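User: Reviewer 2 asked us to show a designed sequence for the structure in our supplementary figure. I'm pasting the structure tokens here. Could you produce the per-position amino acids so we can include them in the response letter?
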């Protein structure tokens, strides 16, 4: 992926304000490439970086990153064929078993993901899955609640990168495990909504191995001139397609070996 940019500083600030407004007041906007058809991935990351800078200036704590569009199911669902990354803050975290409000979201969807917590700095380029596993304190099951700010959940990669990879909320839970005690390629997951199975898959769906997605994320960070600090919380990407939720829905994600994560929407 090239980080080449075409937008002026003024355009980046303008688009960041547009995204920030849509995220904080929960309304849908047209995808950014309608107005800026020549936008690049680098432009998308420039907007995302400016958004991160603003949130941190407002007191949000940057706790980690998420890899997105790392499985075939997700790429096919969204019509995109390159993975992406987004940042995670403390404000997006929700406790396990909690009631998550949908009033401050546009059109939320849930996905099952394997999350990693690191205890060593990871530096790209050329970061490998082995280095990621070596730097992993533990893995845990997570549900990401994504919420594209683009109308109809329709976008291209440039726009979704600017919208911080549709990041909205996340819930970690289950059992923390040392990845050395597990085969992270073969973990089965089942997502239930209101007692019915709505999606299922195996962790190998994420780039063959979820640690591979974390390595990819570290290598994208390197292109942005950044590293992944020790103590980061990283979500490796949805294993199955994302499932829409609405008030009243109960969701439980059951992960082989890692336990389950549940929540309800109000
Ligand atoms: C982009 C975010 C994708 C994942 O796990 O693949 C993502 C989107 O589908 O809106 O978080
Ligand atoms: Mg995700």
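Assistant: Here is a per-position design you can include in the supplement:
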């Amino acid at each position: 992926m090239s980080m080449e940019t075409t937008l002026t500083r003024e355009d980046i600030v303008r688009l960041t304000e547009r995204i920030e407004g849509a995220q904080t007041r929960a309304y849908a906007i047209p995808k950014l490439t309608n107005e800026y058809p020549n936008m690049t991935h680098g432009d998308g990351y420039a907007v995302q970086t400016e958004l991160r800078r603003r949130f941190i200036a407002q007191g949000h704590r940057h706790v980690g990153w998420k890899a997105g569009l790392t499985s075939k199911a997700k790429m096919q669902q969204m019509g995109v064929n390159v993975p992406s990354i987004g940042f995670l803050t403390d404000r997006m975290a929700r406790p396990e078993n909690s009631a998550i409000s949908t009033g401050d979201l546009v059109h939320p969807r849930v996905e099952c993901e394997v999350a990693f917590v690191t205890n060593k700095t990871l530096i790209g380029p050329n970061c490998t899955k082995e280095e990621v596993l070596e730097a992993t304190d533990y893995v845990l099951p997570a549900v990401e609640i994504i919420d594209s700010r683009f109308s109809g959940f329709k976008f291209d990669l440039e726009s979704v990168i600017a919208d911080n990879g549709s990041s909205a909320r996340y819930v970690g839970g289950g059992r923390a495990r040392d990845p050395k005690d597990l085969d992270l390629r073969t973990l089965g997951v089942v997502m239930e909504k209101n007692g019915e199975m709505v999606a299922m898959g195996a962790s190998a769906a994420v780039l063959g191995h979820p640690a591979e997605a974390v390595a990819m994320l570290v290598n994208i960070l390197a292109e942005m001139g950044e590293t992944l600090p020790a103590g980061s919380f990283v979500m490796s990407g949805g294993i199955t397609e994302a499932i829409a939720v609405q008030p009243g829905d109960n969701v439980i994600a059951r992960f082989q070996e890692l336990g389950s994560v549940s929540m309800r929407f109000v």
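For the response letter, you might also mention the following. Residues 9-265 form a domain with the Fumarylacetoacetate hydrolase; domain 2 fold (CATH 3.90.850.10). The chain has six helices and twelve strands.
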